[in-house]
Design a protein that fits this description.
heterodimer; A: alpha+beta; 33% strand; B: alpha+beta; Jelly Rolls; three-stranded antiparallel sheet; 35% strand
Chain lengths: 193, 181
């Protein structure tokens, strides 16, 4: 599939469905090099606001879906080609709008503790990492009787790595604390059904 | 046992508590009492309690600490203006990666909280916070030998912020309890 933003992808729905501990897919080298660079350049013009609660500490942009800076990337996310790609990969029926889009920046001591992302209508969570870092792993936890057990998979953030996972009552995940000089920059959000 | 400086300040402290619903008393115990308490707490056998969606810490129940002495309970009673029957108290340790979360299933009933701190660097996380759901919050100062009394309404909930990597191998010792009146 060719959308102008991404390279051709071989669609294997089984890869998403059968992933453990819950359905997800990891795609390295997701965007074309020049598109990735233009996305990072656009993001540099956005403001990041510190957010803190019992559950998290990180910096985040506003919803980028109406940001003029981000319009080309937003159009790509909204494009029938990309939505259809997500539908083919996941097997879910997904709406083309709304799609939530935020960028997050995790720096030293930032973290996101265990939660399931479950909110009315959210079907797929997606993330595109924009930096290489040694900390701030996305950790997927197993579950038993509706409660998270332990971390079963760790995904190290890598520049241009795309991750999407099913949002369900058992999609327990967390972001391990970022340490030292790491700057974990990512763009992500949710697709709805 | 209690810092004698507080003996003549009961009325003022009671007024602060009545207005603020929270009062913090620094240098609460006399030096020797604090030293003995610190020593006995460090010898306790703490049990780990870890549930990713709720909390991560170690704890131990306390029955006869100096804070549970009738003299201390009477002093606290004079501040909250109620007779204190008992202080149900637990000792906690929070180390790197420990936390507690606000979570519906674990929310406590309204009550009067007692928090006693043995000293900690707030840059390391691990502070006790109270939030009321409106975005407002109050932090309990993590200073050595400090007692905080909080009247926790139905809207007010407590959590302990995630302890970050700057804490290295340090342990945050805390006593947290609830007054029976």
């Amino acid at each position: 599939m060719e959308t102008g933003w991404i390279h051709s992808l071989r669609i294997d729905r089984n890869r998403f469905k059968s992933a453990k501990p819950f359905s997800h897919i990891i795609i390295p080298h997701f965007l074309k090099k020049e598109k990735l660079q233009s996305l990072i350049t656009s993001l540099k013009r956005e403001k990041f606001h510190k957010k803190e609660s019992d559950l998290f500490q990180f910096s985040q942009t506003r919803d980028l879906s109406h940001s003029p800076n981000m319009a080309p990337f937003v159009q790509f996310l909204y494009s029938p080609q990309f939505i259809n790609l997500m539908i083919e990969m996941t097997g879910f029926s997904l709406k083309s709008r709304p799609i939530d889009i935020h960028a997050t920046l995790y720096q030293d001591t930032d973290y996101l503790l265990c939660h399931d992302d479950k909110l009315e209508g959210r079907k797929i969570a997606y993330l595109l990492y924009l930096t290489d870092v040694a900390s701030g792993n996305l950790e997927l936890l197993g579950s038993k009787n509706g409660m998270p057990t332990k971390v079963l998979k760790r995904i190290r953030p890598k520049k241009n790595l795309f991750v999407a996972f099913e949002v369900s009552k058992k999609s327990f995940h967390q972001v391990s604390e970022v340490e030292g000089n790491d700057q974990r920059l990512a763009i992500g959000g949710w697709f709805y059904d | 046992m209690i810092n004698p400086a507080y003996a003549n300040l009961t009325k003022e402290i009671r007024n602060v508590f009545s207005e603020e619903k929270m009062v913090t008393l620094a240098d609460f115990l006399e030096h020797d009492s604090f030293k003995n308490l610190s020593k006995s707490i460090s010898k306790l056998k703490f049990m780990p309690k870890k549930e990713p969606m709720h909390h991560s810490f170690t704890f131990c129940s306390l029955a006869d600490s100096p804070l549970q002495h009738p003299v201390v309970l009477a002093f606290i009673g004079s501040i909250i203006n109620k007779k204190v029957k008992r202080l149900r108290l637990r000792a906690f340790t929070f180390v790197w990666k420990d936390f507690t979360l606000l979570h519906d299933a674990h929310l406590e009933k309204p009550g009067l909280d007692i928090i006693f701190d043995f000293g900690w660097n707030q840059e390391w996380g691990g502070e006790v916070f109270y939030v009321d759901g409106t975005g407002a919050y109050r932090a309990v100062p993590p200073t050595k030998n400090t007692l905080t009394i909080v009247q926790r309404s139905a809207k007010l909930h407590r959590f302990v912020k995630y302890v970050n990597n700057h804490a290295e191998k340090h342990k945050h010792y805390l006593l947290i309890g609830c007054l029976d009146i």
